[in-house]
Amino acid sequence: MSIDCTLQIINMTDQPVEITTTLIHAGDWASPGERNPLVFSGGQIPPYGRTAASPQTLAQGHNSAEFRLSFSTPFGEVGTLADARPVTAPDLAKNMGCRKGYLPTFGDAAPHFQVLEAQHPASSDGNDGKLTIVLIPKIDPRTWMSKLSDDLYLRDLTLPGSHDAGTAAYILGLSRCQDLSIAEQLDKGARYFDIRLDSTYPLEIVHGGSNTGKYFEKDCLAPMAEFLKHRGTKETIVMCINSDAENYFQDSVISLVRRALNNTFGGDNWLDHFEIDTHQKPLKDLRQKIVFMRRYPFDTASTKYLHCRGIEMIEFKNQTGSDTFKWPDDSDSFTEAGGYLFNSAGEPYAIQDRYGLNSFLVPDKVALIEKYLAGWQKGAWFLNFLSGSNAVDFPRGVAEGFYMINAHIFDYIIENGVTPYGTLPMDFMTQPEGLLDLMIASNQKLFVK
Q1: Binning pLDDT at 50, 70 and 90, where does residue 35 land?
Q2: DSSP 8-state secondary structure symbol assigned to residue 218
């Protein structure tokens, strides 16, 4: 019995590419030749284009077949080795039959490009396995926003984000959402940071009843300031602060921001690097800045930093202004309000933050995420949280599993190509390998040439 594997090659770059394939062992593939990757030899894929999905038949008794793939680009050649391995259902317990991540590259243009694969197994009902190979540009994740037009708004982009960004600590699995420090997340390309703080100075980072032993100034603000000064001089960071605190909490937050930025940049010019306006601004006004987004209220009589309001994400109206809504906690704005939510500045937001996945199952969460990805519209800020947990998997299992949320978003971006998807706060952002790079690469059409 032969095993089929559907093969598709995708070009997620702004360059045309010529494809050449060479079989490593011709005997691994069934005859005739048109039923193997040689069908792609001499073909061209235009910028942001793809080949048709083509079934490839392995030789009788073979369950893997290797081939060399070469992309000829205006920068030179990028080569890689791939293999079709349509693992069938009985093998799933061993290796899940699914791979996502980088293939090795070689050739004189390899410094400019990366090659990703997404391989799915053949199913027990006889459906083919699927192998997708994707050429993406190699973009420095520390400086990717510097390539964007000054006239763009943060809402116009795919903005990789971090849910409960400060929880890379030895805490309960139900509370831990990251493996990387905030400094490491910045260097990987994340630019939106969800930060939860307790109510008392010096403001420990907390989540789900767990104290992380990490603190706002030392573990959040200092690495953000250091990044903006030394590596991300044209980058923009969004910092969304959430807390149950009220009186005097605002003073603690802003005084620590002021001290951290002044310590890094010198003098008392902290407001040059901290955006406190309640309205969104274009990138030309936000370079080398932290944009302050606030999910806590404060007593206006108990703060000397009343002017540092930031973008308020506390109370919203619907489009008609007839009803009032809070942040859609464990819900989403389309369900709650039937459309966009308008904050105190009158600007529209679409917020999906469904995280309780015990009765609302992971496939339901994936479908909801994809609804917001597909519904993205310029002019509204889409905050689409990929995060979630349940009593069995906790945040790590929900994010990292082969058939779980991050893997689905990896596939979704490959399938839908280079286009903005909104702000995407996620857990355990380095899994699967290449997910952050895909998100960054989806902004290419917005880059200044």
Answers
A1: low
A2: I
Rounded CA separation 236/131 (Å): 36
For residue 21, give both structure tokens: 């394939």
3-state helix, strand, coil in the chain (%, to 5): 25, 30, 45
**Which residues have CB under 8 Å from 20's CB, separation 6+?**
40, 41, 42, 69, 70, 72
Q: What is the pTM of this model?
A: 0.95
Rg (CA), the chain: 24
CA atoms within 13 A on the CB side of 272: 11
- Among residues 85, 105, 137, which one ends one of the domains? 137
CA-closest candidate to residue 408, choices 375, 374, 376, 365: 365
What is the total count of domains within the chain? Answer: 2
pLDDT for residue 256: 98
Residues 6+ apart with CB under 8 A from 127: none
- Would you say the C-alpha torsion 162, 167, 173, 178 has a positive or negative sign? positive
| Rounded Cα distance, 332 and 326, in Å | 11
Task: For residues 313 and 341, give the distance between their C-alpha atoms in angstroms, rounded to a whole number.
Answer: 10
Alpha helices (H) along 138-248: 182-188, 222-230
Please tell me the predicted confidence (pLDDT) of residue 92.
46
Q: What does the pLDDT look like over 208-266, one tens digit per residue?
A: 889 999 999 999 999 999 999 999 999 999 999 999 988 889 999 999 999 999 999 99
Q: Count other Cβ atoms within 10 Å, centred on residue 191.
A: 24
Residue 117 belongs to a domain with what CATH number? 2.60.270.50
Burial 226-260 (b: 16+ CB within 10 A, else e): bbbeeebebbbbbbbbbbebeebbbbbbbebbbeb
Domain region containing 86: 4-137
Give the integer Cα–Cα distance in Å for 404 and 369.
Answer: 12
Structure confidence by residue, pLDDT tens digits, 167-200 = 999 988 889 999 999 999 999 999 999 999 999 9
Distances in whole angstroms, Cα of residue 324 to Cα of each of 340, 344, 363, 379: 12, 11, 30, 21
